[in-house]
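Continuing from the previous page...

OK, I double-checked the sequence for Bidirectional sugar transporter SWEET against my notes and this is the correct one:
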Amino acid sequence: MGLVSILHTLFGVFGDATGLFLFLAPTITFKRILKNKSTEEFSGIPYPMTLLNCLLSAWYGLPFISENNTLMSVINGTGAGIEFVYVLIFLVYAPKKEKAKVFGLVTFVLAAFSVVAVVSVAALHGKSRRYFSGFAAAIFSVIMYGSPLSIMRTVIKSKSVEFMPFFLSLFVFLCGTSWFIFGLLGNDPFVYVSNGFGSVLGALQLILYAIYRKNKGHKDGKPPPVAVAAKDGGSVMEMGLSNGNKHVEKGKFMPEDT
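Thanks. Re-ran it with the corrected sequence; updated C-alpha cells here:
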C-alpha cells in the first residue's frame, strides 16, 4: 500500500469521526423534545434534508458506483440511520401542521433517492452512473454546507458569537477539510469540490469566532432581532459526506449534520 493510499484511508477515517460528531450533536435538541413531549418552536426541515444528503452520499460511495469511497458509505449510512430516528421522533411530537410538512419532505426525500438509485442502476453504466450519482450527492452536500451562511450573517450583524458555538464551527471545518483532502487524494471532484466549499465556510466561521469571541452574550439577555430569522434560515446542514447540517435552538446554532 503506497503513501497516498494510506493517507487517503487515514483522512477518510478522520472524516468519519468528525462527521459522526456532527450527526450526534442534535441529540441535545431531541433529549429536550422527548422530555417535554413537544417539538416547541424547532424546525423539522433539517432532518429529512440531511437524510437525503446522507442517502445520496452513501449511495455514491458504494463500490459499484465509485471506487475507493467505502468510508463515505460507512459514515453516511450511519448518518442516514441517525437522521431517520430524528425524523421519527419529530413526527411523533410535532403539531399537526409541522408534522404534515415533515412527512411531505420525507416523502420527497425517499422519492428523490429512489429515482437516483433506480436510474443509476437500471439506465446507466460505468462513468455515466458515477457522474449522475456524484452530481446528485454533490448538489445536496453544497446545500448542506451552505446552510450556516445565515447564522454567520447573524454573528456579523450582532457582533456576537453567542449563537455560533466554537466546537461546532471547529468540527464543521475539520469534517469538511478531512473529506476535501480525501477527495483530492482519491482524485474525486464530486468529493473534494463540495467539501472544499464546506472547509472554506468552516474556516470563515472560525475567523468570525476569533473576531467576536469576547462578545458571547447581550447585557439585556435578549437575542438580537436577526436571531429569530436565523432559526429557520440556517437550518439545513448536517453536515454528511462527510457532512453536517445545522439547527437553531431558541436562537442557538445547533449542528445537524457531515
